[in-house]
Amino acid sequence: MRLLADADFAPYSFQTASGAPAGIAVELALAACAAAKLTCGVTLRPFGGLMPALANGDGDVIVSGPRLDEVILNQAAMTRPWFRLMGRFAVQRGNPLKASDSVSMTEKRIAVVRDTVHARWLETYYGGAEIVPFGDDAEAAEALRTGNVDVIFGDDLRLIYWVAGGDARGCCRLLGGAYTDFDYFSSNLVFLASRGRPELRAAFDYGLDMAQTSGATGKIFNAYVPLNPW
Q1: Alpha carbons 52 and 31: distance in angstroms, whole number
Q2: Beta 151-155 vs 109-113: how paired, if at all?
Q3: Which of 12, 178, 186, 215 has the lowest CB atom count within 10 Å?
Q4: Radius of gyration in angstroms for the set of CA atoms belonging to the chain, rounded to a whole number
């Protein structure tokens, strides 16, 4: 099977310094192939070339890249979800906060990137907090590190990489688990098979189930994500 992946979509798919494809989606797709006894190879392409390549028969399955919408689903068949985008809170390590619900956040200053789905979600559900907008993730994170805000809210994996990375300087910790809300910031990540190949979609569904049951899925996430994404 010829697998297609976005060449610049870390940590899901990307090109290593040696030129090899890597990433969570790439390795999970190969694990699913192995479980389903399929022989698979991965080709990295620019984002804009993925759907045309699938439509032209230059590949059999897209494993990362396109966001799901009506146009995409009319052109390809999606497998079962293997991950979803989520939101997460973080605080300084010395902060005594134990929960991230709206009551616990009353009167807390929460940093968020302005004009984003995460900001709109906070405005809807965290009206008792003071929502402090910033221009980008780095500015919001630095405000938390330096104590100018009490909490930060943003994309789950981005916050994990920041908390565990050098820029945070060990300042902070995740608060509570990840949040899912499909009306705002959540969307499923799936593989996309050629629409005329229902047996291929079924094979990948089976392979994904077997990879999860065997523990391969957990090992792949642990290799790329330094803290529990759930």
Answers
A1: 25
A2: parallel
A3: 215
A4: 19
Model confidence over 33-79: pLDDT tens digits? 999 999 999 999 999 999 999 999 999 999 998 888 888 888 899 99
The strand pairing partners of 61, in sequence order, are: 3, 193
Closest by CA to 116, choosing from 91, 151, 144, 140, is 140
Burial (CB < 10 A; 0-12, 13-18, 19+), residue 47, is middle
Token pair, residue 39, equals 């022989």
Residues 6+ apart with CB under 8 A from 135: 113, 114
What does the pLDDT look like over 108-136, one tens digit per residue?
Answer: 999 999 999 999 999 999 999 999 999 99
